[in-house]
Specification:
This protein is an alpha+beta fold. It folds into two domains: 250 residues, Glutamine Phosphoribosylpyrophosphate, subunit 1, domain 1 (4-Layer Sandwich); 183 residues, 3-Layer(aba) Sandwich (Rossmann fold). Helices cover 33% and strands 23% of the residues. The strands form five sheets. The protein has a seven-stranded antiparallel beta sheet. Helix 9 crosses helix 10. The longest helix is centred in the middle third of the chain and has 19 residues. The protein binds 1-O-pyrophosphono-5-O-phosphono-alpha-D-ribofuranose, glutamine (GLN) and magnesium ion. 1-O-pyrophosphono-5-O-phosphono-alpha-D-ribofuranose binds next to helix 13. It catalyses: 5-phospho-beta-D-ribosylamine + L-glutamate + diphosphate = 5-phospho-alpha-D-ribose 1-diphosphate + L-glutamine + H2O. Its cofactor is Mg(2+).
Length: 486
């Protein structure tokens, strides 16, 4: 999961893109980049770290132009620390293309070989985004008849990208001289939302971004989600056209967006993230009520931040007081998306502090959105006990994470998942809790999909092991595990 944004405006876009990236920071903390198109020229600034520390005033001044895009990275392929892998990526031919990508490609080995052996293209990193850009460039090049490029040629090139590339990819590109191109993989695994507003001169101004909250904050009307398998082309003067470029498509958005990744105030594929989290809490409360006798729990407590909506709803449903016992240092950032286990472990302690007065002598029910490696929960349970809790029950609003996630969330190896190959009581023992309750897969589906009909199924491979896109088999998973860099 990364955050992406692209804007076509009647005014300079540098500040708007910066502001949008700040709003998407929760989707990636490794590196960030902004590119703008001024006439036929691109300007680009990329840096490691978070948005606030990455850009200087002189960088912002350099980013002239009324069309642009930006990225915050959470690495899933390649190396989080390598600055050359920060996005956007650029190729000089044909025309000059700059691209950002949220997602993860699954046929990178095949694409790497084809790009070298057949297309004669040089790759300078291990990033799958560089592959995606080169496939797009190659297909654009293949479709050129004369000197210039037209709409049909661009859309046809995207159709060929869909035929060659597997995995998940919500993507935005700038093509020098032509404008902005956005496309979303045929399953729409990662989110992409389209918005519009009227500029000071009456020109239509457009935005495409990972999450709807960016559109609302910029004063854009939410037009719709970019459809799975669709491409959208916007010229610098604000003319928008779209085409369904994939012959097959079905919207199957990633369940983990609703559980953890997205901000609660976003609506993705027509489903409010906040409402989904409330419903996850409601469904989890039903399981808790079946497994734990009433009166055994004194208080329900959330693990901030993402566990909060589910915990609130659980407390209400169970009729047990809701209390906040852990307080968060907001300057630490999200722990799960940090690269490397040592830094993740250290950061949990720096980030959360247990307030003894809330724990002393109490039987607490701690609620988190998910347990992945168990880094957060182990530390937290220890902290709750040290603060005087009489007993600690832990509840996860997501089902056990049993399988690697290969579509844009960095949980690639089975051995690092605390639930892998363990029974519930073994996980409970490994975490150090007195009792452990998980959401069921059915409960999760009902909760996230509840109350709407546009989405009928979710990408939920990390819970079920069923991979919808690409040829993800045992051999592939073993290869991913063996080549994981960060
Ligand atoms: O089992 P683990 O491997 O520890 O991963 C799961 C934890 O990581 C996330 O928190 P994070 O600190 O990233 O973000 P948050 O502040 O939004 O909860 C998530 O909310 C869980 O608390
Ligand atoms: N989380 C993502 O969307 C990552 C994008 C891309 N796979 C990278 O590693 O840079
Ligand atoms: Mg958390």
């Amino acid at each position: 999961m990364c955050g992406i944004v692209g804007i076509v405006s009647s005014e300079p876009v540098n500040q708007q893109i910066y502001d949008s990236l700040l709003l998407l920071q929760h989707r990636g903390q490794d590196s960030t980049g902004i590119a703008t198109l001024e006439g036929d020229f691109f300007h680009m600034v990329k840096a490691r770290g978070q948005v606030r520390e990455a850009y200087r005033t002189r960088d912002m001044r350099q980013l002239a132009g009324t069309v642009g895009l930006g990225h915050v990275r959470y690495a899933t392929r390649g190396n989080a620390a390598r600055e050359e892998e920060a996005q956007p990526f650029y190729v000089g031919a044909p025309y000059g293309i700059i691209l950002v990508h949220n997602g993860n490609l699954t046929n990178t080995r095949e694409l790497t070989a084809e790009l070298y052996n057949v297309d004669r293209r040089h790759l300078n990193t291990h990033s799958d985004t560089e592959l995606l850009l080169n496939v797009l460039a190659n297909e654009l090049q293949a479709g050129i008849a004369g000197l210039s490029l037209d709409e049909d040629q661009i859309f046809d090139a995207v159709t060929r990208v869909y035929e060659r590339v597997e995995g998940s990819y919500a993507s935005i590109a700038l093509i020098a001289g032509y404008g902005l191109l956005a496309f979303r993989d045929p399953f729409g695994i990662r989110p992409l939302v389209l918005g519009k507003r009227s500029g000071a001169n009456g020109q239509d101004e457009w935005i495409v971004a990972s999450e709807s909250l960016v559109l609302e904050s910029g004063g854009y009307e939410i037009v719709r989600d970019v459809r799975p398998g669709e491409a959208i082309l916007i010229t610098p003067d604000g003319a928008m056209t779209s085409r369904q470029c994939s012959t097959t498509s079905e919207l199957v958005p990633c369940a983990f967006e609703y559980i953890y990744l997205a901000r609660p105030d976003s609506v993705l594929s027509g489903i409010s993230v906040y409402d989904a989290r409330l419903r996850l809490g409601e469904s989890l409360a039903e399981t808790v009520a079946q497994e734990i006798p009433t009166g055994d729990i004194d208080v329900v407590m959330p693990i901030p931040d993402s566990g909060r909506p589910s915990a609130m709803q659980m407390a209400q449903k169970l009729g047990i007081p809701y209390r906040e016992g852990f307080f968060k240092n907001h300057y630490v950032g999200r722990t799960f998306i940090m690269p490397g286990q040592a830094v993740r472990k250290r950061s949990v302690r720096q980030k959360l502090n247990a307030m003894s007065t809330e724990f002393a002598g109490k039987n607490v029910l701690l609620v988190d959105d998910s347990i992945v490696r168990g880094t957060t929960s182990k530390e937290i349970i220890e902290m709750a006990r040290a603060a005087g809790a009489a007993s600690v029950t832990f509840a996860s609003a997501a089902p056990p994470v049993l399988f690697p996630h290969v579509y844009g969330i960095n949980m690639p190896t089975r051995s690092e998942l605390i639930a892998h190959d363990r029974t519930n009581s073994e996980i409970n023992a490994a975490m150090g809790s007195d009792r452990l309750v998980y959401q069921t897969v059915d409960g999760m589906n009902r909760a996230i999909l509840g109350g709407q009909s546009a989405v009928t199924r979710l990408e939920q491979s990390c819970f079920t092991g069923e991979y919808i896109a690409g040829n993800v088999d045992a051999e592939y998973l073993a290869w991913v595990e063996a080549t994981q860099e960060s």
